[in-house]
Design brief:
Layout (H helix, E strand, L loop, with lengths): L10 H23 L6 H12 L3 E10 L4 E11 L8 E5 L1 E6 L1 H5 L4 E8 L2 E6 L21 E7 L1 E8 L4 E9 L9 E9 L2 E9 L2 E3 L8 E9 L2 E9 L9 E8 L5 H5 L9 E10 L2 E11 L2 E10 L6 E8 L2 E2 L4 H4 L23 H13 L18 E8 L2 E2 L6 E11 L2 E11 L2 E10 L6 E12 H4 L12 E11 L3 H6 L2 E8 L2 E4 H7 L3 H10 L3 E14 L2 E11 L2 E10 L4 E10 L11 E6 L3 E5 L1 H17 L1 H6 L12 H9 L2
Parallel strand pairs: 5-7, 6-8, 19-21, 20-22
Antiparallel strand pairs: 1-2, 2-3, 2-4, 3-6, 4-5, 7-12, 8-9, 9-10, 10-11, 11-13, 13-14, 14-15, 15-16, 16-17, 17-18, 18-19, 21-23, 23-24, 24-25, 25-26, 26-27, 27-28, 28-30, 29-30, 30-31, 31-32, 32-33, 33-34, 34-35
């Protein structure tokens, strides 16, 4: 038989344990049944003294004890510091919050859950770091800011003022009466953000997650309207305090992408009106806009961009492309005013005015254009180049509506580092060839300093001047180099101060003969052209070289050599005042009658150049013809017979001039 022996505790130990349990039970019952309302007034006085401003539980206080402390307040008023615009930090009909005991004993206030009924919330932050929600007499003490987890608002008002960010926002919250709504909290806001006026409406989940990530993402919708921008977004976020875990689809449209700098801090180029959509995600300090698709002006745009704020200077990176770029959409980027189209007359309307004399119209237009500037004069916003760094690649597969410029395609790698902008490489498909090189703009100097170098390869003559029908049958390719450096804050001032050189060479090919004959005023050949049509002549060589100093381009080589004609020239182009003076001397190689071989002048402004022959030289030839004609009309033709003394130009010298770059 097995016998069990039980430990027999000493009587004193049993009495001690029973006493301890009884005391614990008394303490628990006391805490559970404690009339917490009696502490309301002492607590109001103590909190007001510690905060240096009014703190008051106006009606009732209760506390529930457990693994965490739950405090319920019937009526709550917490005043703002005297410097704040809004008198109340919080004024609520009722409040309930969960409080962690251990952080509280260490002097930190952690509130995993806060419920406010009909609150008025006034948040304000000063440029010196003071903030109304720092619960201390020293409102610049960041450690005095309570850590709030989930915030639930049934209905209420909120104001937010931040002088450093140019923010002054008023928001109103309310719960939808719909049962089981996925987005029960409705809100609307208006005011200023970065000193830009806006209005916003939207919906969200009923619990605002402020300082910890939810296992289930918090849903939200928002519609924002500013003076020139509209934004719609729908998605979710894990943490509203810093928007971490944000994933939303967006649609945005506006007047100019550059205007988003005020709202987002992202430096974007000036553009025409845009309409884009995509997906926006935030992971840590990185914002990523992917699946971008839409229009800039008439040009399509797609790709992705990332904006990283983890470094001392924010950085934008990404890749963008356009299948078809409308060239007119580039005007704002380079500082040109957007093209303006005049409305046409209403269909069916009757014009009772007499048609003006065309010659008078041309004279009037020339006078009007003579004072007009051609080079872009709109100041480039160079200060923004210092606001962030960038590494973005853009590619345009095709370019349309080029008009005077025969651009086919383009690609550029944009690098922005500490205020220095580099376009390297910058490659443009031009007239079936390639214009490639680099450009650097240093915005750290005043005015900004630029440096550029381009190589010209294989530009086709028959596509180089798309507005001139007479060049369509020409054959040949242009090769050369362009190097310029200068300073300025507009494209016009940069070119007006530039120094460097330019050299272009065309090898063997064919040219439209009518061009050469009109330049030489070769009446015989023009008559033949009018009777039998145009024909091409063999191009032996052509070379152009300019030295550039302080915006003044001075020709060192101007030569075009064909089997029919040798044309040489000289002159200058002033990029500072947009004027030019060029003289071309044609020397026909074939014997031709009716030739009034005289220098051809091109002079005037870029906007309204004038083209004509040297009147003195031409008058001499005409005078000789008239004098001989008085003796014998047949002898008048003799004065116009061209014996063709022109010689073949040495193309090697022109090639050497082009290769010295």
């Amino acid at each position: 038989m097995i016998k069990f022996r039980f430990f027999k505790a000493p009587r004193w130990l049993i009495v001690s344990l029973l006493s301890a349990l009884s005391l614990l039970l008394v303490v628990v019952l006391t805490l559970l049944l404690f009339p917490w309302d009696r502490l309301r007034e002492p607590l109001n006085r103590y909190a007001s003294e510690q905060l240096g401003r009014r703190f008051e539980i106006t009606r009732h206080l209760s506390v529930d004890l457990g693994r965490s402390i739950t405090v319920k307040l019937d009526g709550l008023v917490v005043a703002n510091p005297e410097w704040a615009k809004n008198p109340y930090l919080i004024k609520a009909e009722s409040a309930e919050f969960e409080m962690r005991l251990w952080p509280l004993l260490q002097g930190r206030l952690e509130l995993p859950r806060v419920l406010l009924t009909q609150p008025e919330i006034g948040l304000q932050m000063q440029a010196d770091g003071r903030r109304t929600w720092a619960l201390s007499s020293d409102t610049s003490d960041v450690s005095a800011v309570p850590k709030v987890g989930a915030l639930t608002i049934s209905q209420g008002l909120l104001t937010y003022i931040d002088s450093a960010k140019g923010a002054d926002i008023s928001a109103e919250f309310s719960l939808t009466p719909e049962d089981n709504a996925l987005l029960p909290l409705l809100y609307k806001a208006d005011g200023k953000w970065h000193n830009q006026r806006f209005k916003a409406t939207g919906r969200s989940g009923g619990v605002l997650q402020l300082s910890r990530n939810l296992q289930q993402p918090f849903p939200l919708e928002i519609n924002v309207i500013t003076a020139n921008t509209r934004l719609k977004a729908k998605g979710s976020v894990a943490n509203l305090a810093d928007f971490s875990g944000l994933m939303t689809y967006f649609e945005i449209e506006g007047r100019n992408l550059a205007e988003l700098y005020q709202l987002s801090g992202v430096v974007l180029p000036s553009t025409p009106a845009y309409k884009l959509k995509g997906q926006l995600v935030r992971q840590g300090n990185r914002w990523t806009a992917s699946q971008i698709d839409g229009l800039l002006g008439s040009s399509d745009l797609s790709g992705s961009l990332s904006f990283d704020t983890s470094g001392s200077v924010a950085r934008l990176s990404g890749k963008l492309q356009s299948k078809l770029l409308d060239f007119s959409d580039l005007a704002p980027v380079v500082g040109l005013a957007p093209s303006k189209t005049k409305p046409s007359a209403t269909k069916g309307s009757v014009n009772t005015r007499a048609a003006p004399d065309r010659s008078q119209v041309r004279v009037s237009q020339t006078k009007q254009n003579s004072g007009r500037r051609v080079l872009p004069t709109i100041p480039l916003d160079l200060e923004r180049l210092k606001a962030m760094n960038a590494d973005v690649t853009y590619n345009a597969v095709a370019i349309r509506h080029v008009k005077q410029l025969p651009l086919d395609s383009g690609t550029v790698h944009v690098q922005l580092t500490d205020g220095v902008l580099q376009l390297d490489p910058l490659a443009l498909g031009v007239a079936g060839g390639l214009l490639s090189g680099r450009m650097t703009i240093d915005a750290n100097q005043t005015p900004a300093v630029f440096d550029t170098h381009f190589d010209v390869r294989g530009l086709k003559l028959n596509r180089l001047f798309p507005t001139l029908q007479s060049t369509k049958s020409s054959l040949g390719k242009v090769t050369g180099q362009i190097s310029l450096a200068g300073k300025g804050n507009t494209a016009a001032s940069m070119l007006g101060s530039a120094s460097g050189n330019l050299a272009l060479v065309v090898g063997r090919g064919e040219l439209s003969n009518i061009l050469l004959e009109f330049i030489g005023l070769d009446g015989g050949e023009v008559i033949k052209f009018l009777l039998r049509g145009d024909r091409n002549v063999m191009l032996r060589c052509a070379a152009v070289e300019f030295s550039v100093k302080q915006g003044l381009m001075t020709s060192t080589t101007l030569m075009l050599d064909t089997t029919d004609t040798l044309i040489t020239g000289r002159g200058s182009v002033n990029l500072a005042n947009e004027s030019l003076y060029m003289v071309f001397n044609p020397e026909p190689k074939d014997g031709s009658i009716l030739s009034l071989r005289s220098p051809l002048k091109i002079a005037g402004s870029f906007a309204a150049p004038t083209v004509g022959v040297d009147k003195l030289a031409l008058a001499g030839r005409i005078g000789l013809a008239i004098g001989l004609g008085l003796i014998n009309p047949l002898l008048a033709l003799a004065a116009t017979v061209e014996t063709g003394p022109g010689q073949d130009a040495d193309c090697r010298q022109a090639l050497k001039a082009a290769s010295r770059q």
